[in-house]
Design a protein that fits this description.
Strand 7, helix 9 and strand 8 form a beta-alpha-beta unit. The protein is 40% helix and 17% strand. The chain is built from eleven helices and eight strands. The protein has one domain: Alpha/Beta hydrolase fold, catalytic domain (Rossmann fold, 3-Layer(aba) Sandwich). By secondary structure, the chain is of the alpha/beta class. The protein has an eight-stranded mixed beta sheet with strand order 1-2-4-3-5-6-7-8, sandwiched between helices.
Length: 282
């Protein structure tokens, strides 16, 4: 277990692969990086992947709950960068991890070289569209009840809620996918208290006016059937981030690395090889 000691907490991290260093920012809130590692390990042939748990998450420290805000999580990532000895690195953020990644790119522009955003959003101001997306999936009454319920304060209760909601996150929720989801969720170290912060932090989250300040090469990936971070939000980011590319996965939901892994890794490899060569002036 590798621990980085920050000023007011500790971050658990795990490194994999070789190549250009990338911080991997997991989603949530309230879960850990388990669903991304070893899932993203095929990128280890071109990236040095630095998986870590945000403060209050997974195996990281448990500082005061009021210190868990997206800006602070971005600053934590920058502290981790310093500890690891990198002047610049790349950043990958999925879902709410994308909120942290965008804040990192905005708050620490001199310490980022590449930005990869996977099914995320620049603000949480599209609830009407989100609920329409939910209804389009013909949700069961149990799913709707869980979606509208407060976060269960117990670990097993929250874990069960997360399992119930999984059909929303996939284009096709087969028995095989359900088994995979349950297996991954059972391995997670979850924190219901932090998960409950979503209802507060989402209302405050909005970086749209600052996106134009992001100058590094940016790849924006989204599943066409993502109900929570839909293509409309990927388009907003693409329209505002000057040096960005947008790729939409057909027949895919919130996790393209699960539903379309071959296409996902091909797109990402090709993009990085192209922009990395351009950045080097080759």
């Amino acid at each position: 277990m590798t621990i980085a000691k920050l000023k007011d907490t500790e971050l658990y991290y795990d490194e994999y692969g070789s190549g250009f260093p990338f911080l991997i920012m997991h989603g949530g809130l309230g879960i850990d990086h388990t669903y991304l590692h070893p899932t993203l390990d095929p990128l280890g042939d071109i990236f040095k992947l630095i998986f870590y748990d945000h403060r209050g998450h997974g195996r990281s420290g448990r500082p005061p709950i009021n210190t868990i805000i997206f800006e602070k999580l971005a600053d934590d990532a920058n502290e981790l960068r310093k500890i690891l000895g990198y002047d610049k690195l790349g950043v990958i953020g999925n879902s709410a991890g994308g909120y942290v990644a965008l804040n990192y790119a905005i708050r620490h522009p001199s310490h980022i070289s590449y930005l990869i955003l996977i099914d995320t959003a620049p603000a949480f101001d599209y609830m009407e569209e989100l609920m329409k997306n939910v209804q389009n999936k013909n949700p069961t009454p149990d799913l709707i009840e869980t979606l509208n319920a407060p976060v269960d304060p117990t670990i097993e209760g929250f874990r069960n809620q997360f399992k119930i909601l999984q059909p929303l996150y996939f284009y096709e929720f087969t028995p095989q996918v359900e088994e995979m989801c349950n297996r991954v969720i059972d391995k997670m170290i979850v924190n219901p208290e932090v998960a409950a912060l979503n209802n507060i932090l989402m209302l405050k989250y909005n970086v749209i006016s600052k996106l134009s300040k992001i100058e590094v090469p940016t790849l924006i990936l989204v599943g066409k059937d993502d109900f929570v971070c839909p293509p409309s939000q990927a388009q907003r980011m693409h329209d505002s981030i000057p040096n960005s590319e947008l790729y939409i996965f057909e027949k895919c939901g919130h996790y393209p690395f699960y539903e379309a892994p071959d296409e996902f890794f091909r797109v990402l490899h090709n993009w990085f090889k192209k922009v990395h060569l351009e950045l080097k002036g080759y």
